């Protein structure tokens, strides 16, 4: 992948791009990242004010709630010059013009704007847009290199397009870099031969707040975002992104998603989310709905060693079409789902869940899911360990058997009926190979 230097034609760092991606996959599935989620790791990235360096206190615009800085008129050449100056002087806050589309026409080492190498804030306003010209060569909009700290406020990033084995159609964050995307839109960016249509975070830190990532596309993984590093998403919407794997997100590393929506994505595996090995974190107060896959995991695939908690999530109306398997496909690792609803999903073996790992459902309702074969609510595989605590599995339907829960020989299911778990009103039966379950 293009890390420190980026060109769209002859970057020598892309000659082994396929091998690098294979290494990422292998490392992810082996849990080689070994990263743990800590409060200290999710670091707030703050840019320096108006080119005065990093040691001065920021002046805040009361109306937009963002730091004031140097005004940049609606002139792309001026914006390029101001970013170049900010990099040379150790950072800046730049106030872009409202109602302006900064149309990018030149490829500056793989991006339409100079690479960010210091703390730089770009403040926009109503209808402020950074856009690649449709007539220009292929390039992304922004690159953040080591020591770069990019903050976007009230901006739209669109039209980025990469050909060949290049990542991050809209934004690329290289190792040691970081970005905060706040009240912004990352829309309609494409990586036609690589990963991450919207944002690629390759070993950096990415925060997304009150933002919209929609209609981005990647040929390989991570239609909206591909992240190896730290990713935190809050009060944001990811909508209608597409990829081969992980329509919205493909992740390895530290993950926090809160108060957000992931809806309407398409992928061959992991309609919305594909979790590589080594993922640690939480998804909370979030809707994952109406995503589609033709393979595993209409809403999400969780593979390899991981430690993930889903709290107060709604996973609904996701479809694993064709030979697809379930809304949630847990391939390995440990997943806790608590105080959540898994409903109205469709799959083949497992309408709601297909479990090959260690899965605990706590105070969760699994209802209205359909499997064309077995396990309308839950399909527990031969290596799966399933525990249900104060959980309801009701009114699910299977085409053959195990309307509520189907347990393959070798798998273990603990209903913990004493805690109030109920498996009832499923068709054509409630359970197969589950001791203590009323068939």
From TrEMBL:
Span list, region Disordered: 1-20
Residues covered by the Right handed beta helix domain: 170-370
UniProt-listed Pfam families: Beta_helix (PF13229)
InterPro entries for the chain: Beta_helix, Pectin_lyase_fold/virulence
Organismal lineage: Bacteria, Bacillati, Actinomycetota, Actinomycetes, Micromonosporales
Protein name, entry field: Right handed beta helix domain-containing protein
Domain of life assignment: Bacteria
Protein's organism: Salinispora tropica (strain ATCC BAA-916 / DSM 44818 / JCM 13857 / NBRC 105044 / CNB-440)
């Amino acid at each position: 992948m293009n890390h420190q230097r980026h060109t769209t034609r002859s970057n020598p760092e892309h000659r082994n791009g396929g091998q690098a991606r294979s290494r990422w996959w292998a490392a992810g599935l082996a849990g080689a990242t070994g990263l743990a989620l800590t409060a200290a790791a999710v670091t707030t990235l703050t840019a320096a004010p108006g080119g005065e360096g990093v040691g001065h206190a920021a002046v805040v615009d009361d109306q937009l709630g963002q730091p004031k800085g140097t005004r940049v008129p609606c002139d792309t050449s001026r914006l390029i010059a101001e970013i170049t100056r900010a990099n040379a002087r150790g950072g800046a806050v730049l106030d872009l013009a409202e109602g302006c589309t900064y149309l990018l026409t030149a490829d500056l080492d793989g991006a339409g704007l100079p690479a960010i190498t210091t703390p730089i804030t770009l403040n926009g306003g109503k209808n402020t847009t950074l856009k690649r010209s449709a007539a220009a060569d292929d390039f992304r909009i922004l690159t953040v290199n080591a020591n770069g700290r990019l903050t976007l406020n009230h901006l739209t990033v669109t039209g980025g397009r990469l050909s060949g084995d290049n990542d991050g159609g809209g934004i690329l964050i290289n190792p040691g870099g970081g970005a905060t995307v706040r009240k912004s839109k990352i829309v309609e960016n494409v990586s036609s031969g690589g990963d991450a249509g919207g944002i690629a975070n390759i070993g950096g830190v990415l925060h997304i707040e009150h933002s919209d990532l929609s209609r981005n596309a990647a040929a390989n993984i991570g239609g909206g975002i591909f992240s190896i590093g730290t990713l935190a998403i809050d009060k944001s919407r990811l909508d209608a992104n597409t990829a081969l794997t992980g329509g919205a997100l493909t992740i390895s590393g530290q993950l926090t998603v809160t108060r957000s929506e992931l809806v309407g994505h398409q992928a061959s595996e992991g309609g919305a989310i594909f979790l590589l090995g080594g993922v640690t974190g939480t998804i909370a107060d979030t809707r994952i709905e109406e995503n589609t896959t033709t393979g595993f995991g209409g809403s999400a695939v969780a593979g390899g060693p991981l430690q993930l908690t889903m709290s107060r999530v709604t996973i609904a109306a996701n479809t694993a079409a064709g030979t697809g398997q379930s809304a949630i496909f847990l391939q390995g690792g440990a997943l806790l789902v608590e105080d959540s609803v898994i409903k109205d999903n469709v799959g083949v073996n497992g309408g709601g869940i297909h479990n090959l790992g260690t899965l605990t459902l706590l105070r969760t309702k699994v209802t209205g899911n359909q499997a064309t074969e077995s396990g309308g609510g839950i399909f527990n595989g031969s290596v799966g360990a399933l525990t249900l605590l104060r959980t309801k599995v009701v009114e699910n339907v299977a085409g053959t058997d195990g309307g509520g829960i189907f347990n393959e020989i070798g798998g273990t299911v603990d209903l913990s009926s004493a805690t109030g778990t109920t498996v009832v009103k499923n068709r054509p039966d409630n359970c197969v190979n589950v001791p203590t379950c009323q068939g």
